[in-house]
Amino acid sequence: MNHAQLATKLNSIGQGHVYTFYDRLPPEQQQRLDAQLDSLDLDLVARLIDTVVQEPAPFQLPPDVKPAPYYPYEPRNPAEKDKYQKAFRRGEELLRAGQVAAFVVAGGQGTRLGWDGPKGTFPATPVKRKPLFQCFAEFLLALEKRYGPQPTFYIMTSPPNDAATRKFWRDHQYFGMKPENVIIFPQDVLPAVGFDGKILLETPGSLALSPNGHGGSLLALYKSGATADMARRGITQISYFQVDNPIVRCIDPLFIGLHDLDGAQMSSKMLPKEYGKEKLGNFCLSRGKIHVIEYSGFPDALAEERLPDGQLRFRAGSIALHALRRDFVEALNHHGFALPYNRADKKVPCADLSTGQPIKPEKPNAVKMESFVFDALPLTDISIIYETNRQDEFAPIKQPTGNDSVESSHAITTLRNAAWLEQAGVHVARTTQGKPDCVIEIASGVALYPDDLLPRKESLRPIKAKEEVYLG
Ligand code: UTP
Question: How far apart are CA 161 and CA 309, in angstroms?
């Protein structure tokens, strides 16, 4: 649309104010503002303002919620053991056939971490400070060494970090991956909207835009042509993970195998919550469908409820690791994007509409509209959940200190690696409290599983107190 068409459209949806300062802007800023507006689906924006901002439906717990069933970390009986073995073999078969893609959602703004650059470029590992993106590339290269084809890696960015992400991969020669196997594409953005339903300007000549949530990945996969690219490559399964976890199993044959053997459309990994109100989404079952209910909306009484044996009744927490069939992602988009949008009230710096001066709000002043990937779960016919182990694959870096920080991520990584070395018979110095008294990093090229260390057993030496060790 040209400027005049955009102006007409904006007036028709009650958003003509975004051109308040237009006539006073230099031509390049006018063009930029027009381009920003033209890239938005203004009908969708108008609809979301009506439904998400002006008349939001109050949160409602789905009816008759029960704990969702899941496959336990360790099989409980011979039949389950047999199933896990079959599933692992099935996952390996899919990897050998090049049918599984890795998919990282890296479009978030990473405001808590405060890192100047895309989060995937953050130096994450405890010894070599490898960037998160390198951890994933090395994991995928290790799978290639084991199974043959190099898995294709799809990376979702967002407009603010897309160029920097592409440059980072180019500058690092794709960390050894084939450039044609690293597919980078941005998600959509949506404008932040004031509580009065008016789109906010960030400056007199630009909109306050933000990515449309991790659920937007299931739209972007389709819209960008990534799912069509997958179809051309013969990819049928997508392994979804978040950008902030350096020890994530980017593709896990057992999990993909269970998901595939059960014919699931979208599946999830879970961690048992450490305590009732732990800040993880809760896996629930309602009328036969899996739902993730965020900790903020989950009633305390349910969150804290215990079984007679003392275990939490709702113990399955979501860590945003999913397996999705490609055709399920396609189907979610066939009649328009199927996921709902949610409302988040945030502090959004913006321009004062009467003066154009910047406003730095001290309390939430705006609504961001985001979709969540787990809202696709109730749309499946079949969905499985598999329990994993915190130490094995969950060391997220969300903030500089405290929980889910660089420090906690380093500690978990060392804990995992110490356990792996000890299983291979290597002595690891521990403190009197039993914690590893050293820092250990193991590259994926050396070991994806503890048993991979066994052939090197003879060459591994004991790890002394305070040592920093890198096996690469
Ligand atoms: P987070 O909830 O941790 O958000 O995203 P964030 O934006 O990275 O960080 P904060 O909250 O501002 O500190 C979880 C995952 O979802 C991705 C993030 O990149 C991360 O991998 N994400 C989130 C997107 O890709 N797009 C979004 O719009 C939101």
Answer: 48
Predicted local distance difference test score (pLDDT) of residue 306: 97
Low-confidence ranges of the chain (pLDDT < 50): none
Q: State residue 317's pLDDT score.
A: 98
Q: CA-CA distance, 418 to 440, in Å (whole number)?
A: 7
- CB of 373 within 6 A of ligand 1: the answer is no
> Tokens in use for 180?
């044609």
Show the domains of the chain with their CATH numbers. Answer: 57-393 (3.90.550.10), 399-472 (no CATH)
Residues forming a β-bridge with 131? 123
Residue in 109, 116, 375 to alter for ligand 1 test, most ligand atoms within 8 A of Cβ: 109
- Candidates 342, 344, 348, 113; CA nearest to 242 is 113
User: Which two structure tokens, joined as six digits, stand for 384?
Assistant: 């499985």
Q: Does 397 contact ligand 1 (Cβ within 6 A)? A: no
Residue 267 pairs in a beta bridge with 323
Can you give the pLDDT at residue 457? 87
What six digits make up the tokens of 13? 């949806």
Could you tell me which of 328, 96, 138 has the C-alpha nearest to residue 221? 328
Measured in degrees and rounded to the nearest 5, phi and psi for residue 301 equal: -60, -40
- The residues pairing with 199 across neighbouring beta strands, listed in sequence order, are 193
Nearest-CA residue for atom 27 of ligand 1: 213
Rounded to an integer, what distance in angstroms lies between the CA atom of residue 82 and that of residue 278? 33
Here the tokens at position 317 are 């927490």
Dump the DSSP string for 45-62.
Answer: HHHHIIIIIISPPPP-PP
Ligand 1 close to Cβ of residue 440 (< 6 A): no
Task: Write phi, then psi, for 391 (nearest 5 degrees).
Answer: -65, -30
Tell how far the Cα of 106 is from the centroid of ligand 1, in angstroms: 7
